[in-house]
Every structure is written in C-alpha cells, then in structure tokens.
UniProtKB/TrEMBL annotation:
It is found in: Membrane. It comes from Parapedobacter luteus. GO terms for molecular function: metal ion transmembrane transporter activity. Keywords: Membrane, Transmembrane, Transmembrane helix. The keyword Transmembrane helix applies. GO terms for cellular component: membrane. It comes from the Bacteria. InterPro entries: NRAMP_fam. This is Mn2+ and Fe2+ transporters of the NRAMP family. Coiled coil: none annotated. Its main location: membrane.
Length: 391
C-alpha cells in the first residue's frame, strides 16, 4: 500500500475514533464510572470485545463490496438501505447537536467565551474544513492531531488522580455490580449509529476498496477501536481516582469536574481543550458520515455533497441554540445509536454470504460467530432498555 494510502488508513482510524470520542463519550464515561465505580472496568472490557467484532465485520464487508453501507443493505433487501440510512442520519444529527454544544462548552471553559458564541465559532471551523478543496486530507489531519492531543492530556489527568489499580484489575473480571444499560450505551457511543461507518466510508472515498486491502483494513479497524478504548480507559481511571478520593462530581458537567478535581484550575482549562477537541472532531465526523448515508438517494446529493454537509452542521448548531443540550440527551443519544447497531451489523453479516455483493470473498467463520453474538447481545440489551423506559 502506498504512503498516501497508509496516511488515509490512519486518518480513517482516527476519524472513526474521534467521531466516537465526543461530548457524549466523555459524559457517559464519567457518569457510569460515578455510578458503578471499579465495576465499570468489566463493562469497558466487554465493550472493547463487542466493538472489535462489530468494527471488523462492518469495515471488511464494506471494503470488499466496495460500496457504502446503504447500498449494501439495499442489495440484501430492496429498500432496507434507505431505512437504515434514515435511522443513521437521524442518530448522527442527535449526536451532532450535542457535539456542537460540547464545542461551545469547551471554548467557554478554555477562553471564557459565551457557550452560544463558542458553538457558532466551532461550527464555523467545522464548515471551513469542508469548504477547503482538499477536505478529505484536512479531515484526516484534524482527526489525527486532535486525537493524539486528547489522549495525551487525559493521560496526564489519569496520572494525577492515582486510583487503586489493583481493584480495577480485579473488578474487570469479577465486578461487584453490572449494568446492561451502561454496556448498551457505551457500545452505542463507540460503534453505534453512524460511528463505525465513519472510517469505512472514508476509505471508500479515498479509493481503498476490494479484498486486496483486507489486511490493512483489519489493522485500521482495530487501531480505531484501540484509540477510542484507550481514551475511555484513561478517562475511567481519572474519574475513579477522583471518586476514590471522596469527591462528588458535578451532575451538570461530570467530566469537567474530573479534570478540575484532579488538577485544579489547570485541569479545568485542560478539560476545555479536551472537550473542544472531542467535540469539533465529532462534529466533522458525524456530519461527513451521516450525509454519506444519503448520497445514494439522488445524484444531486452527491453533486452537492459539501453544501449538504455544511447545511447539516448549520441545522445542528441552530437546533442547539434554540433548544439547548442537557447531559441526559447525550446519554440517550448513545443508547439510541446502540439500538441501530444490531440491525446494521446483521445486514452486513447477511451481505458477507451474498456472492453478488462480495464476489469471491470468504467470510471467516469465527468472525461471523462473533458478529452474530454481538447482534443477539445488543438486540437483547436494546429490548431490555426499551422495556425499562416503557415501565
């Protein structure tokens, strides 16, 4: 694979990972750590296995088919791709309203700007990425730079908080408590909805398709999960250390409280930078991927792709300014995207055994088994969550 393609592959990995690491990701991790303590380590470990199974299947099948997910789904069952595209588009919009809000909050903490003004400025920066002629390269560059920055800053806060790691290791295997809702939500926040397709669709746009790239695609898919999981683990460790020290997180902004309690005012400013980085990369990733799902609806959508992406960002910003974005909605958006995952993954698994879609590709049995187990588990947890909401 050429040097450019390797750069694209790494960019796709960071695009998926930073699409996942948004305000909702930060909020969910802090909230569930406060609720479950060290037992959350077990849920994180399980989520990594589920994420990897989903990501490998989806990236491989989309790449081999050399078609975006909605076109693959339409070949499995006519019209199904349109239904999934609408679900993913709406889920991406729900998340992106929170992403725009998070970007404004980040600039508020970092620079003291009004949250609304910070949101508008951040939306403008995201729009500038897509106005730029080499938007794909700019998107890759932004994802890689800010992704590495977020990890480095959160690593520092995790070091400062110093939790009891022995308890974390024990409860990662033998948890004292367990929450299926937490598992569904963080899986949804990592590979649910539009997120897992972000990197795969970016590869297609860069011309990386067909089974000759499978080894590189495997590496890219696992790297993306590794990056997102590392950020989750570091934030979990940081939050746990703060809680074990006897602190109580501010329910209006749990992740900000973690950074401030661990490292004072410096930590609070670092949180602003992390929040803004997480939010702006998620705004870009969500807008790009959500619109990529409706491009096949009409040739004009492909022709006006950049303008529609820009309009998507403008609408999300306008909705936030009109309605606001509470912490609870970020949690609900993660759960909603978790409900989309079993449907989209099941469709990809069916497509893997359709020669008309994947040609001579032979899907490894172990990968199908893990994928099917993920579908069943996520569907069951989704039904449990819906039953709880309706009760």
């Amino acid at each position: 694979m050429s040097k450019y393609n390797w750069s694209v592959l790494l960019g796709a990995s960071f695009l998926m990972a930073t699409s996942a690491i948004g305000p909702g990701f930060l909020t969910q991790t802090a909230v569930f750590t406060a609720q479950l303590g060290a037992s959350f380590a077990c849920i994180i470990l399980l989520s990594i296995l589920i994420d990897a199974a989903a990501q490998l299947n989806i990236w491989r099948i989309i790449t081999v088919a050399n078609q975006p997910a909605q076109q693959v789904a339409n070949q499995v069952l006519p019209g199904l791709g349109y239904a999934i595209a609408i679900l993913v588009f709406l889920g991406g919009m729900a998340f992106n309203i929170g992403n725009v809000a998070g970007a404004g909050l980040g600039l508020n903490v970092l620079l003291g700007l009004d949250v609304a003004h910070g949101s508008i400025i951040s939306a403008g920066i995201a729009i500038a990425i897509f106005i730029y002629r080499e938007a794909g390269k700019a998107m890759d560059w932004l994802a890689k730079l800010l992704g590495m920055l977020m990890i480095a800053l959160t690593l520092y806060i995790a070091y400062r908080s110093r939790p009891a790691m022995h308890e974390v290791l024990v409860q990662s295997i033998f948890p004292k408590t367990f929450s299926f809702n937490a598992l569904l939500t963080i899986v949804g926040g990592t590979v649910g909805g539009y997120i897992t397709f972000a990197g795969a669709h970016r590869l297609l746009d860069a011309g990386i398709g067909g089974d000759r790239h499978l080894r590189a695609v495997n590496r890219g898919a696992l790297s993306a999960i590794g990056i997102a999981s590392l950020m989750r683990i570091l934030l979990f460790i940081a939050t746990l250390g703060v809680i074990h020290a006897g602190a109580v997180l501010d329910p209006t902004n749990p992740p900000a409280a973690v950074f401030k309690l661990a490292s004072g005012e410096v930590g609070h400013k670092l949180f602003g930078l992390v929040m803004w980085s997480a939010a702006i990369t998620s705004v870009v990733g969500s807008a790009y991927t959500s619109v990529s799902f409706i491009r096949s609806f009409h040739p004009r959508i492909t022709q006006w792709n950049r303008l529609i992406i820009i309009a998507f960002i403008v609408v999300c910003c306008a909705v936030y300014l009109a309605v606001g974005q509470p912490v609870k909605t970020l949690i609900v958006a993660g759960a909603f995207n978790g409900l989309i995952l079993p449907v989209s993954l099941a469709v990809m698994l069916i497509a893997a055994y359709r020669p008309a879609i994947v040609g001579g590709y032979k899907q490894p049995l172990w990968l199908s088994v893990f994928g099917l187990a993920t579908v069943v588990l996520m569907a069951w947890m989704g039904c449990q969550t819906i039953a709880q909401l309706l009760a």
